[in-house]
Design a protein that fits this description.
Elements: H1 11-27, H2 32-52, H3 58-75, H4 77-81
Helix pairs in contact: 1-2, 1-3
Protein name: Complex 1 LYR protein domain-containing protein
Main location: mitochondrion
Keywords: Chaperone, Mitochondrion
Length: 85
């Protein structure tokens, strides 16, 4: 009943994971060639940022997340992503 298969995630980790999955869902709406390029770009960006940002520095994490979220909100992209904060 509700057994998790991995470590328990913090609220910030869940939000970032939700944003990542939303990007991947949005990529599925594109053609097959574009989808591969977009998914590769998304994956590379998230991995690069994961390596460059200290996971224990909550202030930096929340600032990075807020900047991305706010820029997506202002561009209207979250409607396409169906992101639920």
């Amino acid at each position: 009943m509700g057994a998790s298969s991995g470590p328990r995630l913090s609220g910030m980790q869940r939000q970032v994971l939700s944003l990542y999955r939303g990007f991947l869902r949005a990529a599925r709406l594109k053609s097959a060639d574009d989808r591969q390029k977009i998914e590769s770009l998304i994956s590379n960006e998230f991995r690069c940022n994961a390596k460059n940002v200290d996971s224990k520095n909550f202030l930096t994490l929340s600032t990075c997340f807020a900047v991305v979220r706010n820029s997506l909100i202002s561009s209207g992209a979250l409607i396409l992503l169906d992101y639920q904060p």
